[in-house]
Amino acid sequence: MYSLLFTVICFWCVTVTAAAPPILLPTPKGPYEEKLVEYGAYNGTVLQGLLVYHKSIFPKKATPAVIVFHAFTGRTEFENQKARDLAKTKIKMSRLELGYVAFAADVYGKGVATNDTNANFAIMGQLLAERTTTLQRRVRDAWNYVKSLSYVKDQKIGCTGYCFGGLTCLDLARFDVGLQAAVSFHGTLTNYPGNNASIGASVQAHHGDIDPHTTNQNVSDTVHSNPTISCIRYVMHESTLQAAEFLDEMRARQADWHFTSYADAQHAFTVPCREILAGAANWGIPGAAYNEKADKRAHRAMEGFLAEKLLN
């Protein structure tokens, strides 16, 4: 009886913690494969990301990979498309020209994000309050999943992130897990608490020169003091002072960094106006606006940077 009970308990543990088989989406036209992947599964929260790669890669090995971290909205079609774009980037692999293995990660949990701006800000605020615990674990889960893929070259993995995803992308670089490149687009730049170790990954940060600074108050204090506070108080836009503090951090950590500030660019400058939530362009956030020139320049810079770090 005891052996049977032990077997049942072990089976339960495996089913909770193991990644579920990938969900094959309807076969897309063309040479690319897309899979919804469930992974993580800590404390009952299952994470779900989108994996995209050229069909000729599988089951080949030694392919560079890029993780895409989402904004406060959770993983949306915006991040999914960024993963597709990376998978379609032409990189030379032997005699073929294939793209990266791209993974649009999830740090909220399957089905957690909503179409309500305030609700999504509350989810983000709670994770920021748990930045050194829950959020760190979920960022590492994305890294561990991609690194475990047999056709990924684990020494050649990079990441990108947008807004809140810029913070999680930079945090993965701060963890010094072996990441090669981290690219933040209008990301939150605040330092990781209690971590002053050297950063081995190369860092590229793209910043809007007129990205407004909404509040100096720590987000975790804000969440606990008033859980029903309006979304605008959660916004962690970056002031020039915070950008300067970020550069001081990069210097102190002896990082290989590249920081670009774009003229006339506000927050969310890479998010086209067609990405509409709550009936307003650019997520309905004051001080957020698309800037086509800055968007194109930033992504061209990203392409060259990733090629330098992941293909050499």
Automatic annotation (TrEMBL):
Cleavable signal peptide: 1-19
Alphabetically ordered keywords of this record: Signal
InterPro entries: AB_hydrolase_fold, Dienelactn_hydro, FrsA_esterase
Gene3D superfamilies named in the record: alpha/beta hydrolase (3.40.50.1820)
Domain of life: Eukaryota
Domain Dienelactone hydrolase: 59-222, 244-308
Single Gene Ontology MF annotation: hydrolase activity
Protein name: Dienelactone hydrolase domain-containing protein
Organism: Cylicostephanus goldi (Nematode worm)
